[in-house]
Amino acid sequence: MAAEVVVSLALRRVDKVFYYNVPPHLEGKVKVGSRVMVPFGRRQVEGYVVGFGPAPAGTGLKDIADILDEGPLLTPHQLNLARWMAAYYLCPLAAAIRTIAWPLLHGSPPGRTYVLLPQGDREAPDPRRAPKSAAAWRAALEHPGLSRTELARKAGVSPSVVDALVARGLLRRVEQAPRWWEEEEGPLVGSAGPPVLNEEQERAVREIVTALERKERAVFLLHGVTGSGKTEVYLQAIAAALQRGRQAMMLVPEIALTPQMVEIFKNRFGAQVALLHSRLTQRERYGEYQRLRSGKANVVLGARSAVFAPLENPGLIVIDEEHEPSYKQEESPRYHARTVALRLAGYSGAVVVLGSATPSLESYAQAGGRGPYRLLRLTRRVGGRPLPEVHVVDLRQEMREGNPGVLSRRLQEAIAERLARREQVILFLNRKGHSTLVVCRECGLVLKCPQCDITLTYHLSQRLRCHYCSFNVRAPSLCPGCGSRYLAFLGTGTQKIELELQRLFPQAGILRLDSDSAGRGRAYREIIDGFRRGRADILVGTQMVAKGLDIPGVTLVGVVNADVSLYLPDFRASERTFQLLTQVAGRSGRGEREGEVIIQTYTPHHYAITCARDHDYLSFYRQEMAVRRTLGYPPFSYLCRLLVTGVGEDSVAEGAGILAREIRAQEAGVDVLGPAPAPLGRLKGRYRWHLVLKAGEQAALREVVGAALKSCEKMALFRKVRVSVDMAPQSMM
Ligand code: ADP
Ligand code: ZN
Ligand code: ZN
């Protein structure tokens, strides 16, 4: 039997199995899932063993050169998942394997580290003559066992000060396993007990646990209004899975993976929790993988890619906010974590719980009546709190009545009221920066990014920035086209709102939360914590404020402009807007006092807005389903989007044209829309054309696209342009 190996080269041409001989010294070590080095052409490349089988006759086999890890890289479930991913998303098998095994490929096994112990018998440094040394020494006495960098940070000195103390014999170095590793060795059960469930929660948990017990392959859709206590349902279902010796996985959108959520999990499940998110170092991620593989951890909490965590025996997979677009990876392989999770559950017999206040149309359509999903509903907020009252303000009328400003009179009054009552306000606007459009009033020139087909945004740092690439320049004072002094700064971003609030409410404390002010790490936490503790009255922000925040002091949420997302050229624009409005509205009135929401819009009668106002998911669902049915969009069809990009506009257009012809010629019952320039026609210097394929079944799409790619592969033109396949696309931009 020869080893079947796929090689790790990013080329479709080599996306097939190659056969190799297992030399005697590697016999018994090379297993399915092993990572190996193999001779390939004139060089050696990395490859993955995907099976063993008889080699085709008549070929002389080369030997596997070496094996790279001790055990197999992938578990059997993971290898199955990789095969499925490659077929489903039309990506090379090696790419799927790399995506799944990513932390193991890039991490390094945690080595030894040194901690420092103070030598108490030595004389302390003099704080007057050597204040830095003294500070480090004091910190070492108070916190023995920190590493070099930790100690330096704690004392506020540079690591070289610590080194000097070691050299003088005041600190002793002791070898130890890394601390983060140790810290996880806490109690296996957390300290926090669960609250008593209300009737609806109780019923939901009971149904999930029954399915777990009967080992049913059930998928539940937990449709619970904001603040209805979905998290508690997940926690108790996870606890039940653990009690039955199964493992559990919970996925949350990256943005919802807040310290708050992590704390809840640690309190409930202690050291059994493995945390996987994008802020981990590769080494930490590697460590978490090892804890899972060794069985020390058996609950995974993580964002999108955590769906690939190595669980031997998953019993429960929870996907919170299942409608969130961030579950889709927007680079190859363009997988959707929800789709992957459902497949994984199929392999492992796990129960799946999809939760949301605003389920995706795709999921809800599966849960209606005879659909395969089972619907669980939480219709009320915890503790009998009412849902907030939502008012819609018509900005056209506001304008007619003489207020052209960005904040309507009603919103201003409502804010003033909250300030007087010492309650808190969240204002949401999904655009950062100050002005989103800079245009010359004399010649009409619009300032755009030289690399992207995107208007530049003016920031208070006096710079113009492209929000799609890293391009930024000092804002000019004269029009670069005609030299005029009359540049207009139009369009409103979060910075402009912040200034406007400062002007209107000079006495109010205002915080801004967007990717400029917060990034993802500490600053984010500080802003949120500060606001929660009441250190500010108003929080202005982008979608970072829309999701997951549970701040009891907030009684008013204002949506500055609901139309921003409503008129994007994407068939999901209404759905996204409804979801976003419902989610932001859900931040209001979560504490003792009742909440209010004010939505500003130029189109007050759009059903995405009126249904959000009425908290009426079902009505939105029905109206949007009717639209989708008429247009033949998902969930009434399956889509695949082919995006052709390149630096030459003509070859991109030509490539898209050829692809379209190839697919139409197959006459396989697939509708081809386009080719056409993508709504974002140029990004980072590359032109973009796309075609959208529509079919009644997904298999048909895979076949025609696979065949078309194969015949295009050989054409010279396709060396100049890149084709990316987006199966079941989430973005049409
Ligand atoms: P959702 O995710 O549905 O918006 P959460 O899970 O954030 O809602 O729950 C809202 C709040 O209610 C949280 O502070 C949570 O701790 C609390 N909570 C949930 N279930 C209960 C319960 N049965 N009894 C008391 N408080 C609860
Ligand atoms: Zn001009
Ligand atoms: Zn750009």
Explain this structure.
By secondary structure, the chain is an alpha/beta fold. The chain has five domains: 105 residues, PriA, 3(prime) DNA-binding domain (GIY-YIG endonuclease, 3-Layer(aba) Sandwich), CATH 3.40.1440.60; 64 residues, Arc Repressor Mutant, subunit A; 183 residues, Rossmann fold, CATH 3.40.50.300; 185 residues, Rossmann fold (3-Layer(aba) Sandwich); 90 residues, Alpha-Beta Plaits, CATH 3.30.70. Helix content is 33%, strand content 23%. The protein contains 22 helices and 31 strands. The strands form seven sheets. The protein has a seven-stranded parallel beta sheet with strand order 12-13-11-14-15-10-16, with helices on both faces. Strands 5-2-1-4-3-6 form a six-stranded mixed beta sheet. Helix 11 links the parallel strand 14 and strand 15. The longest helix has 17 residues. It is globular and about 85 Å long. The two termini are 48 Å apart. About 2% of the residues have low confidence. Adenosine-5'-diphosphate binds next to helix 8.
